[in-house]
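Re-run with default settings, no changes from the original entry. Doing this only to confirm the output is reproducible before filing.
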Amino acid sequence: MRKLSPEAKLPAYSHAGDAGLDLFALENTELEPGVRAQVKTGIALEIPDGHVGLIWDKSGLAQKFGLKTLGGVVDATYRGEVLVGIANISKERYVVEAGHKVAQMLIQKVEQVTVVEVKELTQTNRGQSGFGSTGK
């Protein structure tokens, strides 16, 4: 990992056995209700080939303050700054403070597949039943 700013904090696991590396905000970012923002981390990293960095919510920020990450796939070939897309889905203003945890990143293996076009797909019990198809 490389710091792009001297103020940046390197990602870290808070506890032994944690799945996600905590990502830290480089600077204060104000989020009014319903607003989206990109939060800088001030770090760049080199994810091993065959792996991906997936950016997820910090559960406390999501549950207590309504902060949701907006998708985050960091490919092994990416060398730029890790940015965290975040939305405030609450009714209260929130300030992400510099140096505070903003999200977490899971490093996971990925499989590359071969895409093959077919005229028909195999049949399953579920078929095309989608959202809510399994009941309450």
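The longest helix spans residues 59-65. The chain is about 5% helix and 35% strand.
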